[in-house]
């Protein structure tokens, strides 16, 4: 390896990245990381104002960015997101499926609507967004998909049946996508964060947060920024021989 090859390992210049749920938390941290790595970034979330604020922030960092209001539960929105991205930046190189619905309902109190809503956002949306972007990913020389799952796909806990099952299903889709799309030069991987200090996390009771922290070897919440390095590894040339994998970033909790 020479210096120029080394310097390009994590370089995302001239690549277009879609980040769903990209206006706050882990999604915004990832969007910032991609912009700083040189990518053109499209942030998508339900609220138009939040999309524009996030895109403006990314442009202040020196990057090219737009926000596209998108409801992951609406299939028509997914095609529109891809079309807007291509119209603005000419293609799609990376799709980051980060948007999620953290609905928690205990067994005995689950509703059909709740299960359907979780399915639409946590599983159907990511799958159909990849499908909508597929022609453009196939045309890219650096195509990658990153599905944000969760340690909930590996561990079990009260109240998490709906969310964890959808994340486990998305992990399964990650492996199937990797197998089906490898011949197109498209890599597909997943990232499974443990407890991260986000708005979503802070909505939990403190005792629940303390329990999650206590289950890690590092005895702390991650910052959202700590997901950027692993995400870049999985979607940049640094991870060129990685596909069908799930990286667990959880402070050393899940393997035990």
Automatic annotation (TrEMBL):
Keywords: Membrane, NADP, Oxidoreductase, Transmembrane, Transmembrane helix. Signal peptide: none annotated. GO terms for molecular function: oxidoreductase activity. CDD domains: SDR_c. The chain crosses the membrane at residues 144-166. InterPro entries: KR_dom, NAD(P)-bd_dom_sf, SDR_fam, Sec_Metab_Biosynth_SDR. Residues 15-194 form the Ketoreductase domain. Pfam families: adh_short_C2. Gene3D superfamilies: NAD(P)-binding Rossmann-like Domain. The keyword Transmembrane applies. SUPFAM superfamilies: NAD(P)-binding Rossmann-fold domains (SSF51735). Belongs to the short-chain dehydrogenases/reductases (SDR) family. This is Oxidoreductase.
């Amino acid at each position: 390896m020479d210096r120029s090859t080394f310097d390009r390992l994590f370089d995302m210049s001239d690549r277009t990245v879609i980040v769903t749920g990209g206006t706050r938390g882990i999604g915004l941290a990832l969007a910032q990381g991609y912009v700083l790595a040189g990518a053109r970034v499209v942030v998508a979330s339900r609220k138009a104002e939040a999309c524009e604020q996030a895109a403006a922030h990314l442009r202040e960092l020196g990057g090219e960015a737009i926000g596209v209001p998108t409801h992951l539960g609406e299939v028509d929105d997914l095609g529109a997101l891809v079309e807007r991205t291509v119209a603005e930046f000419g293609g799609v190189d990376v799709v980051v499926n980060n948007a999620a619905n953290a609905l928690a309902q205990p067994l005995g109190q689950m509703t059909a609507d709740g299960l359907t809503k979780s399915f639409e956002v946590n599983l159907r949306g990511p799958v159909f967004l990849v499908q909508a972007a597929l022609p453009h990913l196939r045309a890219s020389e650096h195509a990658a998909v990153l599905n944000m799952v969760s340690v909930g796909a590996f561990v079990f806990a009260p109240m998490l049946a709906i969310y964890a099952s959808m994340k486990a299903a998305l992990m399964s889709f990650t492996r199937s996508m990797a197998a089906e799309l490898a011949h197109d030069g498209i890599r597909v991987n997943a990232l499974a964060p443990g407890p991260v200090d986000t708005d979503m996390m802070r909505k939990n009771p403190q005792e629940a947060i303390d329990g999650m922290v206590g289950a890690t070897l590092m005895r702390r919440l991650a910052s959202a920024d700590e997901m950027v390095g692993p995400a870049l590894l999985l979607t940049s040339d640094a991870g060129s021989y990685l596909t069908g994998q799930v990286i667990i970033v959880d402070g050393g909790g899940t393997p035990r």
